[in-house]
Amino acid sequence: MRLRADLHTHTVYSDGHGTPLENVLAAEERGLETVALTDHGPASPDGLTDRSFRRLVAEAREAEKLCSVRVYVGVEANIVSISGEIDATPAMLSESDIVLAAIHNPRLILANPGSAEELRRAIVHATIRCIESGEVHIIAHPVWILEQLRCYITAQEAEEIARVAADHNVGLELNARHLPRDFTLYQVAIRVGAPITFGSDAHAPEEVGRFKPLQKLARRLGIEPQDVHPEELGIV
Ligand SMILES: [Zn+2]
Ligand SMILES: [Zn+2]
């Protein structure tokens, strides 16, 4: 099955190179039906401000009028505390169609970890609390930061994250830019029925809808890559 929804792209309003319109036109050209414009939250370098977010939303709405693609606009928020809080402002949350959350800076979760294990537990805890908060639709690249730190979640932790994601109907993303090396979380997600979403994490228009590596990976996981329609995650 061909994926037709790219639920994670960046524009010039954070560290992407394309305008909202350029991303949307690229999505249309690639035959996508749906694209999400999800720039980085305020805690990221080049992250959104309330002011730039308003411009992103306005340009996204204009772009949608010019194309046949359904456009969702939102933010890839940073998880900024061990209790799973995110950095999207109230204005961003109220105007967003879609909210992704990710850990990019583990120091925000635990400034002085005593051990790799302590940091891993903190990251898992923050991820779970973020899912439970009801503020986010998708956890972007949920194991990437752990893999960067060379620590892998245990089967038990994968089970906890996937079950909470299933209970709260929050997507666990397969991300084309940060391909996971360890599939444990996704294997458990498939077993317990947590949604798995697909995102290119495009930082340039030509990367929008670039799913080839993800399709291969999905097959290795034994699943047919399948769009999760935003409505299925409660996104309207
Ligand atoms: Zn990210
Ligand atoms: Zn991203």
From TrEMBL:
GO molecular function: phosphoric ester hydrolase activity; zinc ion binding
SMART domains: POLIIIAc
Database matches in SUPFAM superfamilies: PHP domain-like
Ranges where the record places region Disordered: 1-20
One GO CC term, this protein: cytosol
Gene3D superfamilies: Metal-dependent hydrolases
Domain Polymerase/histidinol phosphatase N-terminal, residue spans: 5-81
The name this protein goes by in its record: PHP domain-containing protein
